[in-house]
Amino acid sequence: MPKKKSDTDAPEEQVTEAPAPAEAAQPQPAQRMSPPNHIFVGKKPVMSYAMSALIQLTQAGEVVVKARGLAISRAVDVAEIVTKRLGNGQFKVKDIGINTEVVGEGAEMRNVSSIEIVVGK
Amino acid sequence: MPKKKSDTDAPEEQVTEAPAPAEAAQPQPAQRMSPPNHIFVGKKPVMSYAMSALIQLTQAGEVVVKARGLAISRAVDVAEIVTKRLGNGQFKVKDIGINTEVVGEGAEMRNVSSIEIVVGK
C-alpha cells in the first residue's frame, strides 16, 4: 500500500510551549524576550533543535538551550548531541542552571522546573 | 534567575559516610554500585525521591541526584523541591553535570542522556 500524504496529519509546529494567555498581555520583563541564541526546547524532534543550536553556535559561538517540565530531558539530549556527536569536539557544556517557574494563574497555578544549558567553545 | 554553576566538568564525588545497611547486603552489579548518598531517580513519585534526598542531606550533608532519559526532568524536580520547598533554605544545588551513557547490547545499543545534580549545604 502506497504511503498517503495527507495534510491533515501534518506534525504540529509548536515553536514555544504555549504560554498562558494572561502572560502575553503583561508587559514583559527583559528576561522573557529571548535573545536569538536562546533555543527553547519543546515537542519537536530532538534533531531539529540540535541543528538550530549548531547553526547558532557556528554563528554566535554560544547557545543557551532552555526547557521546562518534561522537555528538560530533551534539552539535555540536544546539548549532548551538539557537544558529543555533531560539534566535532569544538563545543562543550559551559554552564547548567536549574530553576522553578510558576505557570498559570489562580487555581491553575503550579510550579514547573526549568533548565538552562549554556553550550559554547 | 538560574543558579550559576561552574566546574560542571568534574562531577566526582567521594563521600564515605553513613553506609546504608540494607544496600550493603544486596549483591550489586559493579556499575550499579553507588555510594549511599546517590539517589537514582526512576518512576516512583517525585516526593518519594525528595524525601530520600532530604534524609541523606541531613545525615551526610550532601546528596547526588542522578537520572537517565525521561527521568531527567524528574531529577530536576527533586533537586528543586529539596532546595526550594523542603530544605528551609539550608541546601542548594552545588553542581550539575550531564553526560551520555550507552545502554543495551548489540542491535539494542543506544545512547541515553544522563544528569547528576549535587545538592549540599
How are the SSEs placed, and which strands pair?
The structure is a homodimer of 121-residue chains.
Chain A (H helix, E strand, L loop, with lengths): L20 H5 L12 E3 L5 H15 L1 E7 L3 H15 L5 E12 L6 E11 L1
Helix pairs in contact in A: 2-3
Give a short overview.
Chain A is built from three helices and four strands. With 121 residues, chain A is of the alpha+beta class. The interface between A and B is medium-sized, with 25 and 28 residues.
**Gap between N and C termini of chain A, in Å?**
49 Å
Q: Into which percentage range does the β-strand content of chain A fall?
A: 25-35%
Radius of gyration of chain A, in Å, reads 16 Å
Sketch the topology of chain A as an H/E string, one letter per element. HEHEHEE
> How does the overall form of chain A come out from the CA principal axes?
elongated
List segments of chain A where confidence is low: pLDDT < 50 over at least 5 consecutive residues. 1-31
Overall strand count of chain A = 4
Largest two-chain interface: A-B, 25 and 28 residues
**Oligomeric state:** homodimer
Order of adjacent strands in the largest pleated sheet of chain A: 1-2-4-3
Number of helices of chain A: 3
Question: If you average the pLDDT of chain A, what whole number results?
Answer: 80
What is the makeup of the main sheet of chain A?
Answer: 4 strands, mixed
Structural class of chain A: alpha+beta
Q: Portion of residues in helices of chain A?
A: 25-40%
